[in-house]
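Section 4.2 – Deliverable D4.2 (structural model, holo form)

The reporting period included a commitment to supply a predicted holo structure for the target in complex with prephenic acid. Inputs used:
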Amino acid sequence: MGKQVLVIGLGLIGGSLALSIKKEHPECTIIGYDLDEEACKLALSLQVIDRYVTDYKEAASTADFIVLATPVQSAIAILDEFLTIEIKDSCLITDVGSTKKDIVAKGEELMAKGVSFLGGHPMAGSHKTGVAASNERLFENAFYIITPTASIPFSKVIQLQNWLRGTGARFIELEPEAHDLYTGMVSHLPHIIASALVQEAGKLGKEHPIVTELAAGGFRDITRIASSSPSMWRDILLHNKEVLLTMLEKWEMSMKDIRSILAQEDAEAIYAFFDEAKQLRDALPAGKKGALMPFNDLFVDIPDHPGVISDVTGILAEEKISITNIRIIEAREDIMGVLQLSFRSKEDVQLAKKILQENMYDTYETS
Ligand SMILES: NC(=O)c1ccc[n+]([C@@H]2O[C@H](COP(=O)([O-])OP(=O)(O)OC[C@H]3O[C@@H](n4cnc5c(N)ncnc54)[C@H](O)[C@@H]3O)[C@@H](O)[C@H]2O)c1
Ligand SMILES: O=C(O)C(=O)C[C@]1(C(=O)O)C=C[C@@H](O)C=C1
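Output (structure tokens):
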């Protein structure tokens, strides 16, 4: 009989992992559990899981591999419950939480009982939630952080990577504290800033409704992540409180600095502020997926007439090239518009470029 995998939390990440585990281990049975039974039913009908349970305890006691993919506070509560039930000696438990210190500390309590827990965090995701947004390629080429402690045997690290080979992710090891510090900077703080920015625009928008209508590329780019799950981010902030309090203090100081050079009309310092940021941003590793997403974008000049967008997308669909995002820039009456198309990989960008050029579309990439 094939092995049993239990996925608890059938949302974006649990669903995507279930798909990539099944792809690499088709003989295993994927059992799902979610607090929300509708999520279980949807996961079953989308063939993300083989079956679901309405109480995970029995399935946990027979599982070979357990993935916790709930918001981080619930993951701790579930690990607490695992302390009270029988789990097979050979079973490996992992989580996908965006914070690691508290979860790994709880996992150590299980280790003391002879149950193997190895913390994990795939550094790829989306502002979308729910199993319907699952994608077996979500983690391809992304960093997958694992946080082994001294109490976990190396064989379990290999076992985890084998289970998760279908993700196509690149595994790296970090101490839980280092994980929370680094992701605090490149993931958690940006989510706070994005949400605060949307709140500010919302306040002005109450008095001047046109403001939100005017929100164009820049605002949308920097605030996309403000559409993420509030319960997930509530838990992340509470788990990474100390790190984020320090970062917010430094952030406030940084805002004070820019305020001060602006008040003084210090043009040189203002230029240096943007120039230094541009150089740092431009130097981010290209072609890598992870917290620092690369741009797999192609820009296409389009004449401003009806049907042109469906023509472009139709050409790409015929070649089976998936578009992950589409945006129209500068499309005003009677002038050329620009279509910004995002793809999963650089290869898809190149293929799309070739096909569209063959169809007489002018295309260009950004560096
Ligand atoms: N979204 C991302 O970009 C991303 C990336 C990497 C890691 N993560 C982490 O992955 C985890 C899941 O995030 P997601 O994006 O899949 O969220 P999601 O909202 O899409 O899914 C979470 C699911 O967990 C279920 N759930 C909540 N409490 C539960 C409980 N006690 N028992 C069983 N099910 C429960 C919810 O009903 C929901 O279906 C979080 O810990 C998050 O920090 C998220
Ligand atoms: O792409 C997004 O929407 C994300 O927010 C993904 C993101 C991130 O901050 O980069 C969010 C939380 C995770 O723990 C890992 C990845």
